[in-house]
Amino acid sequence: MGKDPQLEETLSKVQKYLECFHLPLEKLQEISARLKKDFNRGLGKHTHHRAAVKMLPTFVTATPDGTEKGDFLALDLGGTNFRVLHIRVNEDEQRVMKSQNCAIPQEMMVGTGEQLFDHIAACLGEFVNSQDLKGQTLPLGFTFSFPCEQKEIDKSILIRWTKGFNCSGVEGEDVVKLLKEAIHRRGDYDIGSVAMVNDTVGTMMSCGYKDQSCEIGMIIGTGTNACYMEELKNVKRVEGMEVKEGENRRMCINTEWGGFGDDGALKDILTEYDEEVDRTSINPGIHTFEKMISGMYLGEIVRLVLVKLTQEKLLFNGETSKALLTPGTFETRFISEIEKEDKGVENTKKILADLGLTSNAVDLHIVRLICDTISSRSARLCAAALATIVNRIRVNRKLDHLKTTVGVDGAVYRKHPNFSEELQDMVRRLAPQCDINFIVSEDGSGKGAAMVTAVAQRLALQSRLLEDSDGEDDDDEEEEDN
Q: Hexokinase N-terminal domain spans which residues (predicted)?
């Protein structure tokens, strides 16, 4: 566009409205430092129960080393459907032999826990039968994407239902036990050991099979979260896992970083649009950080800015439409469509027309600028949080330089044309002593769940072998004494 004084004036007014979304490097460094404090609070023995960032122990104590192999079942329950998978792991690959989707009827989502788990056990039984696996007792990885407090790798207590579920008799109970009881009630098949898997941990583990330096998992999709391998000696909140001097034992921590800011720690960067999104959400005051970043909310933030600028007569000749004034109509996927390099302008025209808005060339330019500003803020905030993790790992290990890999999943990261590039660029500026490689996960909740189970099995076998060899040493000593 040529220099048009009126356009220049409009753009400079628009920029003023968008200033509140700009986060310079110094601000991001400050945010990263705040999150670092929250990590310590979440890991602390006496502070974790009131920490905004929960730092949940997962009891996953190692990443894949490439020797894992065998057949595994995986069960992925995170919404109105659940998946059952048969996965074969060998030296070269993790292969889904077969998978099946099962629906959960609406009435079952709000029925009794027993009904729900009987339904899951029935679908799993059908699958095992159809795959001729009935005679085998295969280990199972269980991805259960609801807030849980994990007590052990195979014991996880549901804190509360979300996503439209409200089955009675499950909150406060161990979901692994409920699943095993339901399978036992049927009596026509059995499963081996069970490993509970958070989807973020699954993302890290599925990538860890391809790249053994992968020690961080990150999801930026409908929600956002990350996990990483923490030194066990820093996980003060877990009882009975003492670490001997000089031992380098680790545990994967599910940060639940979406809750960052729930205690007011991000008040200074919240805009009036963020406050409105929070006020009208189903969980006001909860998941502050997630609401500035994830796919569930970005489209709504853009819509609120569009409404404001239209009311200020800086867009669409000051004329809104019924659709634009309706919450939820501007979908997050529109942002990716609008920001596409080649078809962006065409896409913007079509999206605005579908929302009943009449736009000119200046409007198209401004709408793109708004989308770019809001997705860019999301990428930069993610970068600040990820920098906290990589810097922490480097300091934990007393390294001058850390080389590590992040396994990533989620539609915002995968589908937005500039998001991954901006995030990677910014995290390198915020963590200059870290060399970070990014790989996109393939099926973290399926293959990743199988990998968690495979690693747990390998560790259990190693520990049995150690115990056996200790036992032999004891026998030798006894013989010598006689």
A: 14-209
